[in-house]
Amino acid sequence: MQVLTSPSQILDLKQSRNPKILSLPDSFRKETGIDKDSSYTLQKGFTVEGKATFENKPSQVSISPKQNGKSTFSWNGKSYDLDPGKCIKGNHNIQLGEVKVIEHPLAWMLAFGLYADFSLEEASLPTFDYCDRVYMEGAKDNLKEIGKRNPISVSSPFALVWEKGYCIIEPSEDNKFMIDHQVAYPGETIGNSRIEMEFNSEVFSFFGDARTTAFRTKKDAENFYQIGLAGGLKDYPFTLENVLLLDEDKIYNPREKFVHEGYNYEFLCHEIIDIVSWLRFAEEEYEGRFVGRMTTFLFDHHKQIDIAQFVCDREGLQKNGIQVVR
């Protein structure tokens, strides 16, 4: 990856973006009572059950109040705190040590300012029919404030640029976390869609149940759809309930909740869940709440590991003339 700090280079990236910008409908929000300037943990632990994503076995995940320091993920007697230096690039997910598919609970924790400890029966977290809803339901009326957290941001704009895709991080102008995300897919179902929004607990409480997406060519998508109708894959927990299936011009299993004025927002909502996850590493490293603007394009999980490691490396940031500031 390249690190860009020149305003003109960053502007060049922005000027190549789709000028048509989508926004979340006003109805895509729920009140939460969360104070964005506070941090929380659970009052009491709870468990969720599902099929582990890579092992395809029934698995139970225990979510507990934070014991000390950073949040942790544990499996097979090993515990990993949220240190991006412990992340591994393997299958398409954010993997921390031996624990896989942590991106969805990280997004939930980011939205709610939550610290918690996770203990898994299998090495990978399940892919749930309603994504992060299981965590939000377990935490409903079950949070306690553990302290205030200061806003944190970057001292100056920078961009990380890969062979394909980039992520631009800019300081806050209004004490908010703003996202400008663009995707690029063949056909008209998603195409080069771009969405801009403020990320907070209220919008996340609405769209946090957006499903993992599976974009396939028409022939493959039709085949997957028939497999889904027959009950799903035998060696992977894919069903028409836990995955949003689509091809170049069709969504096979839409949920009405995400349709507004003829447009289905579920794909983009799950993209938001995925792309914000890395920021939880930064928030726990610097003990604060991220504010600023994140502009992304083709920003996959491995790129998120890259940027989490870059931002949490104070010495590396300083070499590029960047600091995380309160």
From TrEMBL:
<keyword id="KW-0012">Acyltransferase</keyword>
<dbReference type="InterPro" id="IPR004463">
    <property type="entry name" value="UDP-acyl_GlcNac_deAcase"/>
</dbReference>
<keyword id="KW-0808">Transferase</keyword>
<protein>
    <submittedName>
        <fullName>UDP-3-O-(3-hydroxymyristoyl)glucosamine N-acyltransferase</fullName>
    </submittedName>
</protein>
<dbReference type="Pfam" id="PF03331">
    <property type="entry name" value="LpxC"/>
</dbReference>
<dbReference type="GO" id="GO:0016020">
    <property type="term" value="C:membrane"/>
</dbReference>
<comment type="function">
    <text>Catalyzes the hydrolysis of UDP-3-O-myristoyl-N-acetylglucosamine to form UDP-3-O-myristoylglucosamine and acetate, the committed step in lipid A biosynthesis.</text>
</comment>
<dbReference type="GO" id="GO:0009245">
    <property type="term" value="P:lipid A biosynthetic process"/>
</dbReference>
<dbReference type="GO" id="GO:0016746">
    <property type="term" value="F:acyltransferase activity"/>
</dbReference>
<dbReference type="InterPro" id="IPR011334">
    <property type="entry name" value="UDP-acyl_GlcNac_deAcase_C"/>
</dbReference>
<dbReference type="GO" id="GO:0103117">
    <property type="term" value="F:UDP-3-O-acyl-N-acetylglucosamine deacetylase activity"/>
</dbReference>
